[in-house]
Amino acid sequence: MTSLLRCRAAVSEMAFLFDATADPGLTWFPTIWPGEKAIIVTRRAHGRHLCALFWGLPRGPISEARGDRPRTTLFAREIAGDNRVPLGLDLLERCLIVVEDFGYATGEKGHRTRSWFGLWDEPICAWAGLCLPDPASGGFAGMLTAANPYADPVSRTMPIVLPPSQWEGWLAGAALHRLEQSYDSDAFYLERTPELWASGRLAED
Fold first, then answer.
1. In the chain, where do the E strands start and end?
2. What pLDDT score does 8 carry?
């Protein structure tokens, strides 16, 4: 399950890469758990916009919670009408979630460590997502697909990471099946680390 993100880039770096205007005073943690703020890109009449939103779609009119947790990830079928849990699609906008890499828990319960999954040649990538872009009550969720061979050892699913040529198409509302959704499997890495899953401290400390 995708439940930990990392983003240690500077605002200026992200704004340049996505050709976006950034909100003033953006703040976020370098490692991001559900419920915390991450940086996203949305499409506005004047161009792309960089802002911080909470990871998780608002409950009620947007999405039903799973247990006590808001929806943080979605599947393509959920925006194609084949969905048992209703989504307020008319209230949601397309977005790109700015990510360095994705963390997955490995090992036995109580001794789990972090494995990081990302792209070799791109220090910042774009995870396809949907959002309610209200800075006070909004939030976002990222789209998932079946895991490739590099993600498969740690997760049955992986984020839909879009190459730059597909960013505008996704933001403009193109269907996922019409986009070149993925990089070659060899474009990804899986780095296993001794970082403890919950705290990020080294296991031997």
1. 5-6, 20-22, 31-32, 37-44, 47-54, 73-75, 93-99, 101-106, 113-119, 125-132, 139-146, 157-159, 161-162, 188-196
2. 97
Question: 108: which DSSP letter?
Answer: S
Average pLDDT over residues 22-37: 96
Domains of the chain: 5-196 (3.90.1680.10)
Read off φ and ψ for residue 190, nearest 5 degrees: -130, 115
C-beta neighbour count of 134 within 10 angstroms: 11
Cα 163 to chain centroid distance, Å, stands at 14
**Residue length of the chain:** 205
| Encoded tokens for 59 | 């409950």
Contact 19, 48 (CB under 8 A): yes
* Structure tokens that stand for 36 in this block: 């915390």
